[in-house]
Each structure stands twice: as structure tokens, then as C-alpha cells.
Amino acid sequence: MKLIYKINIAAFLLLAVAACSDEFLELTPHQSVSNEQALTTIDDYNSSITAVYNGLSSANYYGRYFLLVPDVMSDDVKQHPSANRAKDYAEYIATVGDGIALGMWQEMWQNINALNAIINADVELPAAVEADRNHIVGEAYALRGLVYFDMVRMFAQHYTYTSDASHLGVPLVLEFDQFNEPSRNTVEEVYNQIIADMNQGISMLSNNPRTGRTSTLNNTAAKALLARVYLYKEDWANAEALATEVINSGEYTLVSNGNYLSSWSSDYSSESIFEIAMTENDNRGSDALGRMYIVEGYGDYLPSNDVVSLYSNDDVRRGWFKEDNFLTGDYAPYRVNKYPSINGTDNTKVIRLSEVYLIRAEAKANQGDNTAQADVNAIRQRADATAPPVTAVGPALLDEVLLERRKELAFEGQRLWDLMRYKQDVVRNQCTSSICTINYPNNRFILPIPEAELDANPNMQPNPGY
Amino acid sequence: MRKMLLSLAALLLAWGAFAQTRTITGRVLDDTGQPLPQATVLIKGTLNGTSTDLDGRYTIDAANNDVIIFRFVGFVTKEERVGNRTVINVQMELAESDAGEVIIVGYGTQKMEAIAGSVGTLDSKKLEQIPMTSFEQSLQGNVAGLQATGIDGSPGANQQIRIRGIGSISASSEPLYVVDGIPVQSGDITQLNSNGGRSGNVMASFNPNDIESVTVLKDAASTAIYGSRGANGVILITTKSGKTGEARIDLNTLVGFNSVASSKLLQPLNAEQYTQLFIEGYTNRGVSLADAQQNLTNRFQQLTDPVTGRPTDTNWLDAITRTGVTQSYNMSARGGTDKLKYFFSGGYFDQESHIIGSDFERISGRVNLDFKASDNISFTNNLSVGSFDQNGFVDGSAWANPLYNAYLLSPLIPIRDAQGRFNADHKNYFPMGGNNPVGALSGDDSRLTEQMRVTDNFSVNVKFANDFLFRSQWNFDVIQINESQYKNRRYGDGRNSGGYAQVSTLQDRNWVGTQTLQYTKTFGSDHNFDALLGYEAQKSIRKTTYGYGQEFPNDKLRTLASAAAAYSASSTITEYTFASMFSRFNYDFREKYFATASIRRDGSSRFGADNRWGTFYSIGLAWALTEESFLQNSGIINYMKLRTSYGVTGNAGIGNFPSVGLYGYGRDYDGQPGGEPTQIANPALTWESQTNFNIGLDFNLMDKLDGTVEYFSRVSEDLILSVPISMTTGFSSLTQNFGEMKNSGWEFSLNYAAYTSSDLSVNVGFNITKLKNRLTKLNEPYTDGTKRREEGRDYQAYYLFGWAGVDQSNGDPLFYTDETESEVTNDINQAQRYFQDKSATPDFFGGFNIEVAYKKFTLNTQFNYSYGNYIYDANGRFIHGDGRLTPRSTTVWAFENRWVPGKTDAKLPQHVWGDTKGGQAANSTRYLHDASYIRLRNVTLAYDLSSVATMMKIRSLRAYVRGTNLLTITREKDLFLDPEQAINGVAGGLTPAIKTVSIGVDFGF
Predict the structure, then answer these.
(1) Which of B423, B498, B656, B962 is deepest in the core (most CB within 10 A)?
(2) pTM of the prediction?
(3) Which residue stretches, if any, does this entry annotate as coiled coil (chain B) (predicted)?
């Protein structure tokens, strides 16, 4: 009897120990994939580039703050008394510990890292998918240019701040190194990289966006983005040339007067060149840009009368403003309704044909070319058929271009940079903040390099004034 | 000779007159009839004592009404009244495992006297019919060194437990829970309704009435046998098992009434106060009085309450609070024969919070069986099933948190609209999403967590070759959690989505197989030897599914099947495994010198490929001083043991795949799947290790005073730190084994039998823990919320802006510019954060209790206290926001203490709508409070109705009244929060602790 027990016990123990193989302890995650296996097929290229667009759509980036923050710093937007989010920028009192600057910085670098991984991937793929890979890597280059352009605009002074753009830009990181502690390149170096990346992208991109619509980049979209970079760099000839290529591509047409207002509540209009998709299932919800303005959302920010008064009564763009009877005094009477979705499903327009017309107009006007008038008229008279055509020439024509830019691109996050590029003060005539005039030049026109970055990276120079 | 006789007579006389004592002799035998040498023999209440010789014989002088106490390690202490006897022989009985002398330790039991490690115990009496959802709530104040706090006072919420301080920065600091030998899942694993890990607790499915004892293992000698999971201490829960004898059937009933424990909570404004503040907020901005009045009438559209027809004056806090009811019914049967012993129980527990719509309801059942198949083979199976439903709400600074918006919503908003529905109209004029906490908690919204847990523990024990015991134990623990949330279509978070619903299911399956072989042998009569060898394998798999939908046809249908739009769904699987070998040796010499050593080798899927296996060990020594001849008959010192231990344990609570470089998915865009790098590879990453040292002294003086004094030191090494790295890498931190932290301190416990007679007994217990925490190695200091982690400082040291009060001349907020506190500024940008020398770690904490038994009455009181810890009121800056956010309301305290012209003792700045002075900046000492408190945790007055029981022909009957959290005294006058908050001291708008007054009747059949 005893012997039988002993045998049983031995068997038990053996069974137990047998389970203790290394296999038992070797598990793989179900929601993630190890680095080594993450970028090996064309599907992996697809999912990797898709994640970058997802990053662009974050509330810290094109989903909200990248457009909102410069606008609340400008003269187009005034604060509602209940304003909370981004209020420190409207008041110009943000600190290095600010969460928005941190969130945006982090989001942009996460995208750069993901793009570097795609650009630097060294994988053998079947010849049949080589064209697809080329397009994706082209997207990656163009997007890296875009992210660096956005970063250098947000965290560094504009290109013409110093005569040779030798002022502090942002670090250029082109490959992953977890121990890297880079210092900042000059703005000129950053622009050179942006232009190189975008040109590389243009050379690789096909004309068919992967998603079949303008929610991802194609060749012409990359050109439109590069036109904007040249404009900011005041390389008027290149800006004009690329804008002309985009306009003449025939891929886009200006939305008609009748459809223009409704194009802001429907996605992928005929003039859309690149926009960030906010689908019914995948959007920023209560964090959406539009909900910062509409009363059904946070309603934190209101249009200043400074900008509202620029539109004639016949201007279709007046429809971007909606009266709210609960607003009183300086806060009355309008709310911004350019992004009307209650659920946050408005796509964020990154670049559209109207802007490309205005880029060309500005480039031409700066070169003394009066045909800029036609480009301004295309935008002005589309919005208001009764508006008299622009006939001004010289500096007056440039003023007309800039006025039209302000009206057309209002609440698209461009106003502050347009003021900076022309070295103008921010003057809030109707002002609900404690600060109403912000003089150019100003350290606080740009965001602080986040404290967390300064703490972690001894080579990172802070932005002066913070 | 005559002289001598005279002397003798005188002596005899004197002797007789003095005490009338005589010499008693006798023999002390053990349970088998063998003589017990060295047993203590003592006259009760005196210092007179002796011990038995090698034959177990003793001689002692005693009088007729003396009582002689016989004591020996491992046996039940026996008392004999002398009477007219001159020879008193006793046979000692072995102490049973539940008699307190033998306690449960990891993978076995040990005599209390033989333990060299540090353990604390809690018996079933302190757990029966507690009006609380889970047993952990009883641990606080009862076990030295253990801090237990209900982070959230809502029924069924999670408990944070720290044994001897916080042992880790980023890995878990929670102890390992072991139920009847199985390491089980503890804490909050809910997906939807967790409120950041505060509101769920998987342990709440266990019925506290089923617990026989709780043992808390604190030092390495006791925890190293749990290897890589022992570093934060171990809580061993042993459930009741059957006992030989007739069936004992018990029925316990309890009904209680719940209200809020703290009497000083903030009160919201009334309509008159709010109106005044509203106008003032505008005039202080320079708006004319007429315009301010106009703003009021423009804004508030419902100034007449449609229900009452009178001017609207809503007290939102009153409207969401109530007196809740607790009910607890528990029935059990316990008995058995030599062959089969059983314990059955069934329980029902229902607790309503003092907040409407928040409750917890549990049904539970248990069957514990022991079957002795033969002299050598026995089987046990413990099966428990528990199921609960928990209704709760969102907390923190979410608009929907009722305990937050009850203060922020204006009293000028009515609760119901003209149609009698819960009001939603204010979403048009009051910018907080139209939340209506009364409606949300009354069923317009829902937030339900349902948990079912089945735990089974099967084992077979085989004795062979006299000295060997083989035990094979197979356990499984299955947890199923279904969570759902619904937000109604008209107001609150669901208003823009046509209502939305979220559901989540979680299934956690955990199995453990443990094989142990034990060898027990006494060599000669002096050398007792006991060895244990074991192997254990564990696998845990968790699967979750999640779904979302919006656009509901009405608010009655709340399942996703009725959602018309925006479906989304996801599912996840996570798993981990452990494989372990362990061994323990115990040795003692004549039960005088004890030595113990344990070792465990753990392998886990969690550890990096380069560090898959780790070895953990401990040694412990103990010396029973009272077994030495020099202390044997001291009379004062009945028992004294010095013990010490040293060892290394690990903390594997580091997540499931921390060492692998990963791409994370779900980064989708425009309907396409996306994935990007989410984790940097670190194959060297491994468990955190902890070096423990413990020295303690246990003593008993004169059979009246029991006590323990202990010193401990826990050094946590290789702490996993998220070391910040330049974000230009695409990551913000790199996880490394780097830091080091030390917890050291003293524990002191005393139990004093202050008075004992046949009618009255008074017992007093007291314990105190003094804890010191220091970060001893950190790569560089970093600020983490309200704290800053810096080498040489307490891990929980606050690092805040120094609030300097209000400028009484103009109502501006003032801050100290720096730590010298010599200058003040009204501009926070001119102020620096600095260390306040205040921490969330208490200087000391503990509990004390008094038990009085008088005839048939017994009175038990238990107090808990904590001293020197500070809490930070995270919602304070919103609730007391000086008008920063128009037109949010505030509290009466703020109203009364705000600055107005002429006021010279204002505590809060001037109220200005859209305030830009920044007085409400986060991380300022304005919102820091001293949380030192004493709380009357439990007071129970019971009456033994045995005479009625006899009449009713039942075994026993007992009735009692009980108060839980009846009284709270705080050191700070302005503490408007419950002093019991999360261990990190940050209070985030959670349900304050419950006070319960209950009555109970226990029937024995």
C-alpha cells in the first residue's frame, strides 16, 4: 500500500515539475507586438503610417489645441468668463509647467519617432508592393516635414525673426536613440530639413491618397503644404510656383457660394486638399475644437467684434457666427459656429484650395505682381458676390490679401502667425482679457519648451521669457 | 531542645496565621500521558511560581482559595482551584490550531512560540457582522504596522493597505492576499467604473463572516516563502472549517442606518447667499450694479421652482443625501464526525450609502469540507461563491460627480422642471453640461458593477513513513465582472449623443497548483526538526470585452442593442505565469532556541528574458528567555521571547510585459488600424527586491500584560523608476531598476487585562506604529503632482506653493515667494514651490480598544488614530475657486470667509467672476490640511440573553447595538474632508466615510 502511495506522489511531483518548462514562462502580449515584428510587411507600413495620422488628430494637435492656442492668443478670439482651457495663453500667463505645451510637444515628438521608424525601416518586401511602400514612405517624409513645420512655428519664433533665421528652432531628430539629448537647431536648419523632407515626399508620393479621399496625403497635397512653408520662409517665387501647380492640378475646385456654409458641416468638400478625419466612431468628442466654441460644448471662447465686423452683411461667412442671447455686455452677441458638430465629428481642415489661392496672392503681391488681385477676388467674391473687385496695387494690394486671409482663415489657427510674419502687434479692440495689447516682438508669442523636457535634457535651451 | 520546639511552634503558628498555606505537589503530563518537564506552575495573581522537573513533578505552596496556573508552549494553559487538595495532577491538552496559540503561516501552521518572524493576527470575532462590505476595513487599528484606508467611502469600494509603509514607487505597494493557501486577485480590476482604482474591490465578494482568522506577515522570515510577491507583506485569510461534534447552527442578523461620518463637511450656498455672491462677482469686476442684476435675470431662467411655486432655492447636497440602510443576515452550520467535518454558510449583505443611488448588495455561500479517508489520507475542499451588485457614480473633478457638482451648481436651479421631470433646462444657461445629480442618481443615469467570484481549493494530504506529509493542492479562482454605464439623453454627459451606454465584461481566471512535502521529526527529546519542500505553478488569464453605443430611442432601453449609432467595441487578453520552488526549515532546541530559514526560486513571464529567475530567502532566530533557568521562576516575567530575522523578498507587481519593446495598436484613423512604438525595450528589467531586517521582543508579565515591541527596516532596492528622458526620443520616460527607498520604524502593541473577576473584566489593548520613509537613491529629483521625489526625503513629502493668506487691504491672494517664507507676492509667477516639511505619511498611527464585560453585558470599543499626515484637497481649487469660473457656486464656508471691503480676517480672496489673480492655483498649501484624527471605529454593547435562549430552547441568544465611525475628532479645525483618504493623501471628491448605527441579534441553535 505504502509503495503505491509513494509511486503516486512521485508521479504527481513529476507532473508538476514538467509544467515548469520555459515555455510556461514565455508569454507574448495580445494587444501589442514586439519591436522586431512590428514593421515587417506592407500591412505594418500601413498601420504605422495610419498611427501617425491618428497622432495628428489628437486633441493636443490638430484635434484642438494646435488651432485653438494661437487663435486665443490673437485678436480674433475673446474669452468667455467661464473659459478654462487654454485661458493662460489668452492671458499670456502660461508657465513652463503648462500642460498644453507639454502635451503638444510630446505628441509631435511621438509622431516624429513613428515617422522615423517608417523612413528608416530596412525591410525586404515583395516587388508587387514596392509602389505601395514608396507612397507610404513618401507620406512619412511629407508628414515629418509637416510636423517639424508645426513644431518650429509653435515653439520657435517665425523664420524672419532674425535676418538669417539663425535663432533657436527645434532639435532635428532623424533616427531613434533612447539616450539622445539633442540641442536645438537653428530655424534655418529646421526649414531646410522641412523643405528637403517635403520634396523627398513629393518625389515618392503617388496622386492617389491611400484612403481614397483627402484624409491622407497625396502628391499634390504635399505640394500645397510645401507652398505654405515657402510662404512662411518668404521664398515668394517657390510659394507662387507650387501654389500654381496645385491650383492648376485640376484636382480641386473652390466650393460655390451656395454650398460654402454647409461645407463646414460636411467633410471632404471639393476644395479639401488635406483634412484630419473625425469619424462618427473616432473623434475627439468633448475635447473637439468646435466644442471650445459652441454653447453645447464648453463654449469657452467667442469671436471678437474685431473680426466679426470685417464681414459685410452679404458675406456668406457671416454664417460662421451665431447669436447667443445669454451673452451680455462685452461677451455679446456671437458664438463661433465654423465647427458646428456637437459630437466633435467636424474634420479639421489642414489645408484647402482657398488658402492656396491666398498663398499665391500673397506671394505675387510681395513680388509686385498685381495679378494677385484675381486670386483675392476668387475668394472674396465667392463669399460675397456683391463685393467690389480688388483693384488696389502695391502695398495696398498686400493689405487686401492679408485682410482676406484673416477673414477666410479665421479660427483655423493662422491669424497669430500672419501678424508675426508681418511683425505686427496683437491689438484687441474688443477685449475680455486682462491683457489687450501684446507688442511685437514678444517672447510669449511662442510656447514654452516644457519644463519636463528641460529637466530631462540638459542640452535643451529654454524659450526666453518663460 | 525546648527552645527549638518553641521556635518550631512559633514558626508553625506564624505560618498558619500568615497564609494558611500548605505544600501542594503533583505532576504535569502532556496529551499522551508523558511527563512535561519545564512547565510553568504559578499561583494566579502572585509572583510565586516554579517549574516542573524532568519527571514533570512540581512542589508549590498554596492556600485553599488559590488558583494554580499550568502553562507550557503548544498546550492550552490550564487553571486549577486548590480547594482542599494537596496533590494536583494535570494532563495538558494540545492547543488546537484555532486556539490562538498556533497560527497560520505561509504553506503551513506554526506554534506562536516558535515564530521568529513578525506576524499580526486578527480573529473572527473582529470580523463577524461588521457593517462593512469587506474584511480589510477591520484590519486598521488592529494590527501594528498596517495602514488600511478606504480610499472611497462608497459601499464596496477599494481599500488601500500598506504594511510597514510604501515599498515601491511605480510597482505595486499592495500586499499579496492568500485565501486558504491560494494567492488570489485583490484590489480593483474594474474597467469602466473604477474611478481610477478607487471604487471596485474584488475581495468584497468574500463574506467576512466566513473568515476564521487573518494573519498578516510582515517581515522576511514570514514572507520570503512567497518570494517575488512577498515584498509588500502577505495577508493570509483562513476560512472557517468544520469541527468534530454536534452541529452548531448560527444565525446572525443586523440592521443598521448609515449617514456621513464626518460632521464638518462643507455646505452649499442657499439662494440668497448665491445671489449676493453672483452680483458681487460682477461688481468686483467693475460691472455696474444694474448690469450685474441684469446678468442675473438674463442667466437664470427658472427663478420660480415649478414644483413648489416658490422662489427657487435648491440645496443640492441635501437632495442627494439620505439615511441609508444596512442589512446583514448570515447563517452557518458547523460540525462533523471524526471522518467528515463540515462548515456551511450563506450570507446576505446589503448596504445603502448616505448618497442616493449608491449601494452594494451581496449574496454569498460557502462549503468547506474535510474528509478523512483513512488514518493517512485526507481530503479537503473549500468552495466559495459570492456575487454582488454595486451601484455607484463617477468621482473626482468630473462634472458628473454628484459630490462635486452639488457645490458648484447654483441654488437658483430647480431640481425638477415644469413637466415634473428632473430638470435639464439649465444646460442652456449654466455651463456645466446641465448635470442634475439628483436625477442622475435617481435612475436617469446608471453605473452598475456586477461581480461573481468562485473560489475553489481542493487538496489531498497523504501521511507516510511516519514523519512525512505530502500535500497536493489545486485551486482556481474565477472572477466575472459585468459593468455598465448609461448616460441619459436629456442632460449631463449623454446630452449631445442622444444618450450613450458603455458595457464591459471581464473574466479573470487564475489557477494555482501547489505540491508540498513536509518532514517533521524530533531527534532525541531536544531537537525538533521540520522541513518543507514545495513546487508551485500559477497561471492567470484575463479577458475583457468592451462596447459603446449612442443615440438611444428612449431612456428606458439601455443595452447596446437599442443604440442607433457610433458603435464601437474592443476586447483584450492579458496573462501571466509564475513557476516556483521553495523550501523552509524549522529547528528548535527544547523549544528554547528556534531557527528558521526559507528560500524560494521564482520564475515569471513578467521578468525580462535576461532575468527570468530570481531567488529570495530569509533566516530567523528566536530565543525563549523564559525557558532559561534565570528567568524561569521570576514570577513577574511569565514569558519572554527575543526574535530577529533577515531576508530578501521581491516585488513582481510590475505589470505583465514591462521589459519588451512594444508597438501598441488601436491608434486608428479614418477607419484604418494603426500602430506605433509605445514602449522602449529593456530586457534587463526585473522585479524590485527588498532587504528586510526585524527584531522583536514578545512578553507576558504576570499573566496580565501581553506585549510586543519591534523594530523593522525595509530597504527596497532596484526600484522600477520611469526615468524621464528627452521627449525628442518619442518617449517621455524609460523604465529602469534604479531607485532605493527605506522604510523603518517601531511597532508597539500591548494588551492589558486590567481587571478580572467573575462579574467584571476589563481589557485594554493599544498599538502604535512609528514609521519613517526615506528615498535613499534616486537618479534625479522630480515633481510628481503635489509631491516632489528627492533623495533623502520622505517619498510623500509635499512640494507646493506656500499660501500666505489674503491681503486684507484689497482681497488679493498672497503666496510666499520661496521657502524662507519671508516675502509674499500676489503673483503666483513670482512664487516658487518648496518643501513644506509636511508629508502624506503619518508620524505615527495605530489603534486602541477597551473591552468591558460585566455580568451579561459586554462593551467593545475600538479607536483608530493617525497623527502628522497631511491631505491635499484636489477639488478645493474648483469648489473654492474665488469666482474663477463663472457662474459656479461655492460653499457657505467660502462665502463667510471671503474677503469683502472692511473684513480683516478673510481666509479667502475677493470673489471676482473670471478671476485672473490665480489664488486658486493648483499645488498650493491653501488646499493642504492636517489630517491627524482619532476615530471611534467601532463601539458595540452586547447583552447575553442566554436565559431567554433556555426558554426558547435554543443554544444561545445575544443582542447588541453597534456604532461604526460614530465619532471623529480631527486636529485641524478647517478640515472639511473626511480625514481617511488615499495613502497618497490626495482627496479627490470621493464619498466620505460612512457612519453606521446598527442593532443585531445572534441566534445559536
Answers:
(1) B423
(2) 0.82
(3) none
